[in-house]
């Protein structure tokens, strides 16, 4: 193990095999469908989540943070394996209680070097920062250096996603039923972003084609260091990726493609597409 262990949560939408490449530990949160509760990528894969999500008459899923005990176990395991420090990169504290759980666990180990970074983002906005942390750990950087860098670089995270329907935002309580009905009648496609740790409606566009075009515009206005295309069961996500690469001029090897999982997916619904960016530092 490197001197510094990097830990994130499943709200990062980082699959276990991808996390393992950078030596990142992923703490699974919880997702419940009615009385049934699962842990992402432990007892429920992303494909299984979407199958349940889209099943007729399925209960709307709810999510919950991991308890402090899960973080405590992960911290102890990291130190037992030889880590000198732990850096936790987590979903925005305004979207989940995950940061609070990690802080409680860290307080149980007052003699250990544990640093918690609230990404102020979600999905691979968290994941890109965790990957950067993993790379720095492999280079021998200290926990203090990594945490300081991630705190600065989280300001360079940007995210835009267009949704196919307003229905799931309505079911998640983020817009009114009347707004969803009017949006459906007008074929409105919302574009969402994350601002200061909170999900916001950036704008609403008529038609799927125009919304995709607008998202591509928003994603290619500034130089990009690395990116992750996000989608929810979107069949033409590779075409969107190719369009993004062509317009941004980014090295294709710096672009990942990930399916949004159970932490953010309930609010997006199927056929959403967009990207999260790590912009080049100013």
Question: What oligomeric assembly is this protein in?
Answer: single chain
Question: How many domain modules?
Answer: 2
- How many strand segments? 13
Strand order of the largest sheet: 10-9-8-13-11-12
Beta-strand content estimate? 25-35%
Q: Which overall shape is indicated by the principal axes computed on the Cα atoms?
A: globular
Pairing-aware structural class of the strands and helices? alpha/beta
End-to-end Cα distance, whole Å, is 32 Å
Can you give a write-up of this model?
The protein starts with a strand and ends with a strand. The protein has helices spanning 16-21, 46-53, 68-80, 98-107, 124-138, 143-153, 167-171, 177-185, 208-219, 237-248, 265-268, and strands at 4-9, 24-27, 30-33, 36-38, 62-64, 85-90, 113-118, 157-162, 188-195, 198-206, 224-231, 255-259, 273-279. 37% of the residues lie in helices and 27% in strands. With 282 residues, it is of the alpha/beta class. It has two domains: 4-154, Rossmann fold (3-Layer(aba) Sandwich); 157-279, Hypothetical Protein Tm841, Chain: A,domain 3. The chain is globular and about 55 Å long. β11, α10 (237-248) and β12 (255-259) form a beta-alpha-beta unit. Residues 174-186 have low confidence and may be disordered. α5 packs antiparallel against α6. Strands 10-9-8-13-11-12 form a six-stranded mixed β-sheet, with helices on both faces. A four-stranded parallel β-sheet has the order 2-1-6-7, sandwiched between helices. It has eleven helices and 13 strands.
